[in-house]
Design brief:
Elements lengths: L9 H14 L12 E11 L10 E3 H13 L5 E11 L1 H12 L5 E9 L3 H6 L3 E4 L4 E4 L12 H20 L5 H8 L11 E4 H6 L5 E2 L2 H15 L2 H13 L13 H13 L10
Helix pairs in contact: 2-3
């Protein structure tokens, strides 16, 4: 005889999946003040080449579509980015940074542990950046290991790639390009490399990170940004910009036809001058 399979309760299965999603820290709790998404960027940023299986990695092909989904989801009000990375692929890191900086929703980043190498552009790509006091950030020039061609074009390629990173970091932070290059080419800081290591307090002092703070500070800041964005005043300013943005010589819209204008005048003539309720 065939064994009878147990019945599956679809509602219970769906509820378990939702609870698991919340427990993994992807979305805020159902009791949260605002619905935010938490994005973890940890380990090494994996780009076009697959890293060894024992490495903890963040794959950029997973993060890019996730950012698009967060931007499109109307239920998500803000994005919290938690960084603990040693760096990795330059182009993959810059691609993630550019998408984060171009989001319309409020974004806040917090560096815990470390935000080294290409983690620096990732940290400053958010609207507001935080770092815990014990975290560090390493600034060093672009380098490559393995077989490469020893020609002038290779050095030129490195310089242009480094300029892309410098330009992005200084555009989204309070650090000047001159100071960034100075820290990047420091020779007395690292033993086996050139560059500088900044702790949390120094990163804020140099203008690389906005504020020194913990998780509660980052979440509170994100909540404030969401509430400021959703206030009637800010929405009124957006509507005013849309109205005043119309050119002076633009034609009226199609709904204001001559017949509509005539009907409006006819209605106004029916009211007496003293009737305040009838004035438009």
């Amino acid at each position: 005889m065939q064994e009878e399979l147990p019945e599956i309760n679809v509602e219970e299965s769906t509820e378990n999946i939702q609870n698991t999603t919340c427990d993994n820290g992807v979305y805020a709790s159902v009791n949260a003040k605002h619905n935010i998404h938490c994005l973890n960027i940890i380990g090494q940023i994996e780009g076009h080449y697959i890293l060894p299986s024992q490495n903890k990695t963040t794959k950029y092909e997973h993060v890019l579509p996730a950012l698009v989904a967060i931007e499109e989801d109307r239920e998500i009000e803000g994005l919290l980015i938690i960084l603990n990375t040693v760096g990795g692929d330059v182009e993959a890191g810059l691609a993630i940074s550019e998408l984060i900086s171009g989001m319309s929703k409020p974004t806040v980043s917090i560096v815990v542990g470390g935000g080294h190498s290409i983690g620096v552009p990732l940290a400053v790509s958010a609207d507001k950046s935080f770092i815990v006091p014990s975290a560090t950030m390493t600034i060093h020039p672009v380098r490559m290991n393995g077989l490469m061609l020893g020609i002038p074009q290779t050095l030129s390629y490195f310089e242009r790639m480094q300029e892309r990173i410098t330009s992005f970091v200084c555009k989204h932070s309070g650090m000047s390009p001159e100071r960034f290059r100075e820290l990047m080419m420091e020779k007395n800081e690292l033993v086996l490399d050139v560059g500088s290591v900044l702790d949390g307090k120094t990163a804020v002092k140099e203008g690389l990170i906005d504020s020194l703070g913990s998780l509660s500070d980052a979440v509170s800041c994100l909540y404030d940004m969401i509430e400021r964005k959703n206030t009637p005043i800010s929405q009124g300013k957006k509507q005013a910009r849309k109205t005043t943005g119309r050119k002076s010589g633009a034609k009226p819209s199609s709904d204001k036809s001559p017949s509509h204008a005539t009907a409006t005048v006819h209605i106004m003539r029916q009211y007496k001058p003293g009737n305040m309720e009838g004035r438009l």
